[in-house]
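Table S2 (continued). Query chain:
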Amino acid sequence: MAALSAAYDAQVRGHVPSCPPVGAVLAQDGPILRVHYGTHATVRHAPLPRTTTPTEVAGSIRRQQQVCAGRNEPVE
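Corresponding output:
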C-alpha cells in the first residue's frame, strides 16, 4: 500500500495535468492546484513538507475557500 501511495504522490498529486479539462481554469498557489470549472472548483495539493504546521495548513485551506467564494463556486 505504501508503494501505491508513493506512486500516486509522485505522478498525480498536485501536478498540473498536461491536458486540462475543456473550459477549466487552472490556478497554482504554491503546492496547491485549484481547478475552476465555472460551476465548482476542486483543490489538489502536492505532498506538503514535514515542517508544515497545522496553522499553515488551516491558512491555506481558508485561502482556497475565500478564492472560490469570490468566484461563487463551491469547492471540494
